[in-house]
């Protein structure tokens, strides 16, 4: 198996070299695609220096050299992939030595678990220490498991997937700024066979810092749930529908305002 690794980059000068080095150390990696998403720091310079030292590195920019987000950047990179298999990494995260120790099982994709590294102890409540599915879920049961269970989730940076599979689904939804990874994973799980890797050991490290903490991402999270409330292409169980609707209501700004208003009314009335 040969893999192309896609890394979208936006103002990641502090972390980028570590990320690139963690990928280049793997023999299975045939290609490393770095997409500069309109960085204003030294990220592009770091990318160019890395490309001088490793012929596997391809640097891409959007036609206008602007900032278009992770989904557009990943979709651009997918068009340039030369390997049968694709993996993803964020510019502030890094792979471990066992990243591509894949099981001897026929599948369209493989996923594992990752571990969080906190740059500030105050952020430890923003994300879980480990992210991934530790239950042994059969590929044909994974879609239902993911959509029904609120805590059922695996990270995109733990996924190794066939290029043709992603292309068949149209890649990432560029209308989503949050939840675009979960959206793709759910669609993949419905259409294709995704098999777990070693679920007892992490295969990558996610760096949790003030710019990517969970609380920073909540503002647009409702858009992901709104999409899944209204989509018709992928069937959902009654349990999954309820969970998704509840999550949409929780995150939707208008719903939160109404809920706070109602709570205030009841609070005021109870004090009279």
Structure description:
The protein has 272 residues and is an alpha/beta fold. The chain has one domain: Spore Coat Polysaccharide Biosynthesis Protein SpsA, Chain A (Alpha-Beta Complex). Helix content is 37%, strand content 18%. The protein is built from nine helices and eleven strands. It has helices spanning 16-24, 43-53, 69-78, 139-148, 163-168, 180-191, 221-230, 238-251, 253-270, and strands at residues 3-9, 29-36, 57-61, 85-88, 94-95, 109-111, 113-118, 130-131, 160-162, 194-196, 202-208. Strands 3-2-1-4-9-6-10 form a seven-stranded mixed β-sheet, with helices on both faces. Strands 5-11-7-8 form a four-stranded mixed β-sheet. Helix 1 (16-24) links the parallel strand 1 and strand 2. Helix 4 (139-148) packs antiparallel against helix 6 and helix 7 (221-230) runs antiparallel to helix 8 (238-251). The model is unreliable at 268-272 (pLDDT under 50).
Q: Kindly report the spatial arrangement of strands forming the biggest sheet.
A: 3-2-1-4-9-6-10
Hey, roughly how much beta strand do the residues contain? Answer: 15-25%
CATH topology term: Spore Coat Polysaccharide Biosynthesis Protein SpsA, Chain A
- The strand count comes to 11
How would you summarize what this structure contains?
With 272 residues, the chain is α/β, with parallel strands linked by helices. It is built from 9 helices and 11 strands.
Topology (elements, then pairings):
Blueprint: E1 3-9, H1 16-24, E2 29-36, H2 43-53, E3 57-61, H3 69-78, E4 85-88, E5 94-95, E6 109-111, E7 113-118, E8 130-131, H4 139-148, E9 160-162, H5 163-168, H6 180-191, E10 194-196, E11 202-208, H7 221-230, H8 238-251, H9 253-270
Parallel strand pairs: 1-2, 1-4, 2-3, 6-10, 7-11
Antiparallel strand pairs: 4-9, 5-11, 6-9, 7-8
Helix pairs in contact: 4-6, 7-8
């Amino acid at each position: 198996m040969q893999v192309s690794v896609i890394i979208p980059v936006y103002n990641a000068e502090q972390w980028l070299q570590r990320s690139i080095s963690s990928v280049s150390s793997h023999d299975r990696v045939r290609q490393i695609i770095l997409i500069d998403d309109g960085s204003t720091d030294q990220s592009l310079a770091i990318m160019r220096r890395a490309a001088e030292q490793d012929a596997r590195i391809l640097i891409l920019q959007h036609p206008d050299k602007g900032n278009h987000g992770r989904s557009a950047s990943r979709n651009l990179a997918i068009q340039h992939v030369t390997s049968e298999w694709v993996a993803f990494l964020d510019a502030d995260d890094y792979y471990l030595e066992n990243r591509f120790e894949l099981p001897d099982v026929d599948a369209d994709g493989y996923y594992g678990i990752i571990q969080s590294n906190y740059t500030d102890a105050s952020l430890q409540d923003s994300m879980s220490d480990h992210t991934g599915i530790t239950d042994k879920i059969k590929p044909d049961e994974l879609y239902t498991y993911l959509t029904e269970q609120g805590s059922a989730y695996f990270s995109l940076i733990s996924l190794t997937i066939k290029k043709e599979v992603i292309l068949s689904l149209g890649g990432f939804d560029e209308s989503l700024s949050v939840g675009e990874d979960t959206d793709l994973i759910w669609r993949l799980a419905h259409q294709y066979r995704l098999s777990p890797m070693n679920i007892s050991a992490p295969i990558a490290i996610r760096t949790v810092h003030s710019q990517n903490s969970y609380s920073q991402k909540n503002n647009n999270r409702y858009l992901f749930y709104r999409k899944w409330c209204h989509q018709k292409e992928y069937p959902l169980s009654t349990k999954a529908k309820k969970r998704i609707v509840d999550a949409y209501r929780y995150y939707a700004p208008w719903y939160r305002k109404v809920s706070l208003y109602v709570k205030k009314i009841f609070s005021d009335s109870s004090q009279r």
